[in-house]
Amino acid sequence: MTTFGYILPHPTYPNRFTVWFTGGLLEEVVSKDHAVKPSEGWRRTFQDPGGKSLKRTGKKLAAKILLGAEISDQMNEIDGSLEYFFHRPIGGDGQQFIDVSVLIPFYSYLI
Fold this sequence. Notes:
Elements: E1 2-9, E2 16-26, H1 40-46, H2 54-67, E3 69-71, E4 82-91, E5 97-99
Antiparallel strand pairs: 1-2, 2-4, 2-5, 3-4
């Protein structure tokens, strides 16, 4: 799973970055023994995730309204990946952040 987003320096904390998530990509990791992508197990799981049930349609509608999410209806037939995007990024000031701590090693030399 790959997550897309961006970070900016926090306006008030010098060692903090604010994070926004804008989407992602779900794809199968292929081993050396496995030459075919996507595998049959991956296809069975994600070919038609949830079908067109009322529950799935309701979840997609809620994600679209609340998050501005755009979810792919089908996996990419070439590599089996599934993508999603947030037209209104998730996160921001005070919600998602990364604190950065820097340790500088101190070396003492014996003479």
